[in-house]
């Protein structure tokens, strides 16, 4: 499943850059074509971010990457109650 998400990530970012470049630099396109290119670029951006975050989360869970320094909910609430944060 991780490989599938990685492939989706690459395709999404490629679409973002390709359609974003097209939307910004193309001359002679109609307004409808520019809107479609911008929407496809935005879709690539959103999909790429979501896929990247899923890859980061799965890397943390599998032990491949260090876990983030976030506190779990219980420790955070205890620290807030003590006033140490």
Q: What are the key terms here?
A:
85 residues, mainly alpha, elongated, 3 helices, single chain
**Helix segment count?**
3
Q: Helix content range of the residues, please?
A: over 70%
SS strand fraction? under 5%
Question: Uncertain segments of ≥5 residues (pLDDT<50)?
Answer: none
Largest sheet properties: none
Overall residue-averaged pLDDT value: 89
Structural class of the helix and strand makeup? mainly alpha
Q: Compute the CA-based radius of gyration.
A: 20 Å
Number of strands: 0
Question: Which H/E pattern describes the elements?
Answer: HHH
| Approximate shape | elongated
Distance between the termini: 38 Å
How would you summarize the topology of this molecule?
Layout: H1 2-25, H2 31-62, H3 73-82
Helix pairs in contact: 1-2
Question: Please, could you describe this protein's structure?
Answer:
The protein has helices at 2-25, 31-62, 73-82. It is mainly alpha-helical and 85 residues long.
Summarize the structure.
With 85 residues, the protein is mainly alpha-helical. It contains 3 helices and no strands.
């Amino acid at each position: 499943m991780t490989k599938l998400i990685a492939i989706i990530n690459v395709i999404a970012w490629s679409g973002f850059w390709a359609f974003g470049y097209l939307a910004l630099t193309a001359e002679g396109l109609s307004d409808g074509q520019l809107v479609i290119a911008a929407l496809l670029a935005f879709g690539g951006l959103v999909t790429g971010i979501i896929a990247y975050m899923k890859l980061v989360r799965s890397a943390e869970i599998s032990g491949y990457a260090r876990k983030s320094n976030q506190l779990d909910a219980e420790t955070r609430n205890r620290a807030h109650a003590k006033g140490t944060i």
